[in-house]
């Protein structure tokens, strides 16, 4: 009985150290999760930069027009995007609903949309701050 429990622990998806050639569904799921975690960390790093810029821009903003500021608009957009991302990726995974492949589909979708959002935030930062398009260095 103890051997069986140890065997199952050894097969746990989180036990994958490298994701060069995952072969089992558990390994593929774990690697997809690792990839999403990487993309999410990058998004959070870019988010901090954009959020900092938005707060500084608000300090210089004339609020007499009744519109929301940069930071408020940015936060509302990010919250709406997070709701969209999570709901959309849940929907995309329904072909494998309840199956062992569902986490792979969810995490692949989350990674793709998160990488796209990170690029959008980089573009926003560069274009809003400088006024002309250019490339922001990767973080």
UniProtKB/TrEMBL annotation:
- Keyword check for Disulfide bond, yes or no: no
Write the signal peptide boundaries: 1-17
Q: Name one Pfam family in it.
A: LprI
Presence of the UniProt keyword Signal in the record: yes
* Domain Lysozyme inhibitor LprI-like N-terminal residues, every copy: 19-121
Q: Which UniProt keyword terms apply here?
A: Signal
Q: Record's InterPro entries? A: LprI-like_N
Annotated PANTHER family? PERIPLASMIC PROTEIN, PERIPLASMIC PROTEIN-RELATED
Q: What is this protein called?
A: Lysozyme inhibitor LprI family protein
């Amino acid at each position: 009985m103890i051997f069986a429990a140890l065997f199952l622990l050894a097969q746990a998806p989180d036990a994958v150290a490298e994701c060069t050639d995952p072969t089992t569904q558990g390994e593929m799921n774990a690697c997809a999760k690792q990839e999403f975690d990487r993309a999410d960390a990058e998004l959070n790093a870019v988010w901090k930069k954009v959020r900092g810029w938005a707060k500084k821009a608000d300090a210089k903003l004339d609020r007499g027009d009744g519109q929301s500021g940069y930071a408020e608009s940015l936060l509302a957009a990010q919250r709406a995007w997070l709701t969209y991302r999570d709901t959309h990726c849940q929907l995309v995974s329904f072909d494998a609903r309840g199956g062992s492949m569902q986490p792979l589909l969810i995490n692949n979708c989350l990674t793709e949309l998160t990488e796209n959002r990170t690029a959008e935030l980089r573009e926003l930062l560069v274009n809003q701050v400088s006024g002309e398009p250019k490339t922001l260095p990767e973080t």
